[in-house]
Every structure is written in C-alpha cells, then in structure tokens.
Amino acid sequence: MSVPARLTADQASALLPQLVTLLQDVVAGGASIGFLRPLPADVALHFWHDVIGEVARGSRLLLVIREGDQVVGSIQLGLCLKPNGLHRAEVQKLLVHTAARRRGLGRVLMSAVEAEARAVGRSLLYLDTEPDQPAEVLYRKLGWTEAGAIPDYACTPDGRLHPTVLFYKKIAP
Length: 173
Ligand SMILES: CC(C)(COP(=O)(O)OP(=O)(O)OC[C@H]1O[C@@H](n2cnc3c(N)ncnc32)[C@H](O)[C@@H]1OP(=O)(O)O)[C@@H](O)C(=O)NCCC(=O)NCCS
Known about the structure:
The chain has 173 residues and is of the alpha+beta class. It has helices at 9-14, 16-28, 41-57, 105-119, 134-141; strands at 5-6, 60-67, 70-79, 88-96, 124-129, 145-155, 161-170. It starts with a strand and ends with a strand. The structure holds coenzyme A. Residues 26, 31, 33, 94-96, 101-107, 129, 133-135, 137-138, 141 line the site of coenzyme A.
C-alpha cells in the first residue's frame, strides 16, 4: 500500500507538474473542488503556488501519495491561526486520481491527515463536500458528523449549482 508523505514547500515545488496533472484529472472527472472544466494548466499552477506559499508560511499541511513518478493522491490541512482557534483545522482538497480510485487511497489519506492534525495539536477537524458523491460516503464511513447543509453553495465543473454539506470530527489529542 502506498504511504502518504507530508511535503515541505521545496518538495512540493519539485512536484508541481504532477500536482497540476492530478488537479486537472480530478476536475475533468467532475469533482466540485473549486474549479470549472476544462481546468487550464496555468490556473492549476496558480492554485498550487498559493498552496505551497501557505505550506512555507506554516498555515497549511500538504500530504501526497506517489506511485512511480506520479502523484496519485493528495490532501491538505488548513491550520487556523487565530488565537482562539488554534485547536481546529480544515481538511481540504482530498484528491485521488481517477485511475487510482477504489484502492483505499482516499481512506489512507484521511487517516494520515488525522494523524498529522493530532501531531500538531489540532483536536477539531471540519470540512465541506458536495452531497451524494463518493467523498460524502467516505466521510460518513470514517465517523465524521454532519453539521448541516448550505443550498446552492458552489458550482459543479459544468456550472450547475449544488449544496454543500458541512462535517466535523473531534479527534483525541
Ligand atoms: C472521494 C475520493 C477521494 C475517494 O477516493 P478513493 O481512493 O477512491 O476511496 P477509497 O478507495 O479509500 O474508498 C473508501 C470508501 O469510500 C467509499 N467510496 C469511495 N468511492 C466510492 C464510490 N464511487 N461510490 C460509493 N462509495 C465510494 C466506499 O465506502 C469506500 O470503501 P470500500 O471501497 O471499502 O467500499 C475520490 O473519489 C475522489 O478523489 N473524488 C473526487 C474529489 C473529491 O470529491 N474530493 C472530496 C472533496 S470534499
């Protein structure tokens, strides 16, 4: 089984082409993760540059799974830096390449991000996701609690408005 690795900003920069490919693949596959399709390479590159900047500043963790010279999965943890929110973090952009799905990588990435959250002292995790998609099934299976839904929150890659469901999970410190 492939093991997720937490990347430094320099390591992530060295993987930029693979990260761009992963993001483009997942958006092309129809996932609502902030982009419309087709996703131009320069837009994907800009996104990853922002992510890497936050990794460098210490406000974000980035984990990836590599197979050969490809990045087949990734996940991020946005660390709240507000003085009253240092216990919480947002799980974001769980991505598994369409050719690598249903092999347990999503589950492994979620487990790894929880472990990283614990290691940096975060005890409350939250996320949001499009309902009735594989990710929602996964989060429920992993013990996340639904907090509610917001209608018409975002667009699918094809421009159709959909709700988002908010989930949280308290993890032991
Ligand atoms: C959600 C996603 C990360 C799952 O990745 P994955 O590696 O295929 O997931 P896993 O193989 O670890 O599956 C774990 C469990 O999730 C559920 N699951 C995953 N894909 C599913 C699907 N297509 N339909 C129904 N349940 C699914 C199953 O319960 C599965 O367990 P099982 O295989 O024992 O039945 C992947 O589908 C993906 O990248 N989707 C697009 C991006 C996205 O929506 N990210 C979330 C943004 S909030």
